[in-house]
Amino acid sequence: MPELDLPQRQATDALMLTGFWYRAMPADRVDRHQLYKALLLEIPLVLGRDQAGQPFALRDACPHRGMPLHCGNFDGKNVECSYHGWQFDAHGGQCQLIPSLTAEQNLKVDRIYAGSYPCEERDGFLWVYLPDPAPLSAGFGKPVEAPGPAPVIEKI
Q1: How far apart are CA 57 and CA 93, in angstroms?
Q2: Could you count the other beta carbons within 10 Å of the beta carbon of residue 109?
Q3: What's the rounded Cα separation, in Å, for the pair 33 and 35?
Q4: What DSSP assignment string belongs to 114-139?
Q5: Is 55:122 a contact under the CB 8 Å cutoff?
Q6: Residue 121 parent element (H or E)
Q7: Handedness of CA 154, 23, 124, 88 (dihedral sign)
Q8: Which of 10, 19, 98, 102 is most buried when burial is the number of CB atoms within 10 A of its CB?
Q9: What is the DSSP-derived secondary structure letter of residue 14?
Q10: Burial (CB count within 10 angstroms: exposed 0-12, middle 13-18, buried 19+), residue 92
C-alpha cells in the first residue's frame, strides 16, 4: 500500500509564546463579584476578583458543554456556568457542584476542572501566566504553578 503524503500540521505562533506572564487587563477595571472576558494567545479567559479582592483567571469555557463562563454568575467564591449551573472554584477551577446530580449518582465532581491559570496583580495590571500546553486529554487537571512571580515593570 503506498504511503500518503499528508500535510504536516504546524503549531500556531501563539503556541510558541507559552511559558510566560502576560498583562491581561488593567487592574482598576476588574471589580469584585464581576466576571470579565479576555483573550491571550488565542486562549479565551474569564477574569475576576474573589470576595477578598484577589484576582483569578479561568479558561472561559465550561468543561461540560463549552459555554463561556463569563456569561454565568459569580458569588465571590465560585463561578457558575449559565447553561447547566455547574460551579467551579474561582482560583483552582475545581468543580464544586453539579446541580443536576441526584443522591444515587456517585460522580466524583472533584475530578472535574475548568482550566485555571496563575493570576497576580502587579504594577496596575492583572497578569496571567500561560503555561506550555499539556498533552491532549479529555479536559483540564489540577492548576499549574507559575515558575515565579509576575514580572516587575521598571518604574521611570
Answers
A1: 9
A2: 14
A3: 7
A4: --EE-EEEETTEEEEEEPPPPPP-SS
A5: no
A6: strand 119-122
A7: negative
A8: 98
A9: G
A10: middle
Cβ–Cβ < 8 Å for 90, 96: no
Q: CA–CA separation, 119 vs 123, rounded Å?
A: 13
For the four alpha carbons of 146, 137, 46 and 80, in that order, the dihedral sign comes to: negative
Q: pLDDT (tens digit, 9 = 90+) per residue, 77-99?
A: 999 999 899 999 999 999 999 99
Q: Quickly tell me which residue has 493570576 as its cell.
A: 119
Residue 89 exposure: Cα atoms within 13 Å on the Cβ side: 15
Instruction: State pLDDT tens for residues 4-16.
Output: 565 555 555 555 7
Eight-state DSSP code of residue 72 = S
- Residue 50 CA to its chain's centroid (Å): 14
Helix, coil or strand: residue 15: helix
Phi, psi of 69 (to 5 degrees): -70, -25
d(CA 73, CA 20): 29
Amino acid identity of residue 126, one-letter, is: L
DSSP string, 57-121: EEESS-TTT---GGGSEE-SSEEE-TTT--EEETTT-BEEE-TT--TT----GGG-B--EE-EEE
